[in-house]
Amino acid sequence: MTIVALGINHKTAPVELREKVAFSAEQLTVALQQLQQANLVMESVIVSTCNRTEIYCSLEGTDTQTLLSWLAQFHQLPVEQLQDHTYCYVNDRAISHLMRVSCGLDSLVLGEPQILGQIKQAYNDAKHYKSVGVMLERLFQKTFAVAKHVRTETEIGASAVSVAYAAVSLAKHIYGKLDKTNVLLIGAGETIELVARHLHQNGCARMTVANRTVARAENLAKEFSAHVVSLAEVPEQLIKADIVISSTASTLPIIGKGVVEQALKARRYKPMLFIDIAVPRDIESQVGELNDAYLYTVDDLQAIVSENMASREKAADEAEDIIVQRVDEFLLWLKSLDSVDVIKLYREDSEQIKQELLNRAQQQLLAGKAPDKVLLEFANKFSNRMMHAPTKAIKEAAEAGELAELAQLRKILGIEPQ
């Protein structure tokens, strides 16, 4: 039995190639069925995100090249095009890779938590299509436990490591809760979109998006129920804003010292937080000289990000130690599945039950109990003890609707349908 992880990710291939091997929801169904029906694998889970496509599976042999050929054929690509951009890990390295990915140690942003949810979804999809068996069931449950352990026992996800996240963390640090703050976002690009998402996740419900192209701002605002204005309306919007976060492609400042002075006066000098993520800068540096205006630039945020990244890297080292230990534990379990060991353990367990009940029966006979009653009690107790584990397994499989497992139990127990 071989556990395999075959994949392609942001480290090994450009986005142009990654998008060609991504699986849509419809393709995923077909792919899992193909792998099973063609007997290419025994079990399989396919993870497909914008940054990676990975197949986790168990094989009877060690022919991983066939798996790569199948992936290329499924997406109608020459296998040579994938050969140099894929990685293939087996057994302990495959197990370790899955755990590292789930903990965010292999992500574009170290420690990001979204990947765990994506892997859980991939596992649930595979279970739905009956492509997860005993092996991958145990592996993925172990992996989820490891990821939870790493999240709770290390600081891997505790600090901001993107400028957008750092901006929102700074705002939250200054204002505490964001649910009663008015936020003005200037720009509608990817960075502002990330800022808006983080603000939304942190309870901010009052956002206004200002952009040169109003239509583009509307697309962004729709997702977060934000208000939309043009850049020309920024001066009057400043009066209402507690927090201003700007990231545009403008070559000249959009907000000057004068307009902020007027806004502060209209606000009766209620403090304002300005976060300028743009390069070149959107907000004149002189704004920071005003008493009730607090200005942070991308350099200030980058210093926070760098410090936090160092913290995450330290936590990542701790996570690697946890993963090494958990991989060893899984390999021990895997080794226990060896047929010789299973037979030996089963025989030893059966012998122990027999000997225990036999000793009890002999003591009863010596005590003068009727032999026929002793034999009947021995037979009943022995059959009940031997049937307990399989009966429990059958009930659990039936309650969970695991028809494949029920069929396997029938085969193991020699129960043929009438």
Q: Helix tally? A: 16
- Helix-strand pattern: EHHEEHHEHHHHEHEHEHEHEEHHHH
Biggest β-sheet strands, sense, barrel: 6 strands, parallel
- Helix amount, in percent? 55-70%
Low-pLDDT residue spans:
none
Describe this structure in words.
This protein is α/β, with parallel strands linked by helices. Helices cover 56% and strands 13% of the residues. The chain contains 16 helices and 10 strands. The chain has helices at residues 15-18, 25-37, 65-74, 79-83, 92-102, 114-128, 134-153, 163-175, 190-201, 214-224, 234-238, 257-266, 298-335, 339-366, 371-399, 403-413; strands at residues 2-9, 43-48, 52-59, 87-90, 182-186, 206-211, 227-230, 243-246, 272-276, 293-297. Strands 7-6-5-8-9-10 form a 6-stranded parallel beta sheet. Strands 2-3-1-4 form a 4-stranded antiparallel beta sheet, sandwiched between helices. Helix 5 (92-102) runs antiparallel to helix 13 (298-335), helix 7 packs antiparallel against helix 13 and helix 14 (339-366) runs antiparallel to helix 15 (371-399). The two termini are 33 Å apart. The mean pLDDT is 91.
Summarize the entry for a quick read.
With 418 residues, the protein is an alpha/beta fold. It has 16 helices and ten strands. It is 56% helix and 13% strand.
List keywords for this structure.
418 residues, alpha/beta, 6-stranded parallel sheet, 4-stranded antiparallel sheet, elongated
Strand-helix topology:
Blueprint: E1 2-9, H1 15-18, H2 25-37, E2 43-48, E3 52-59, H3 65-74, H4 79-83, E4 87-90, H5 92-102, H6 114-128, H7 134-153, H8 163-175, E5 182-186, H9 190-201, E6 206-211, H10 214-224, E7 227-230, H11 234-238, E8 243-246, H12 257-266, E9 272-276, E10 293-297, H13 298-335, H14 339-366, H15 371-399, H16 403-413
Parallel strand pairs: 5-6, 5-8, 6-7, 8-9, 9-10
Antiparallel strand pairs: 1-3, 1-4, 2-3
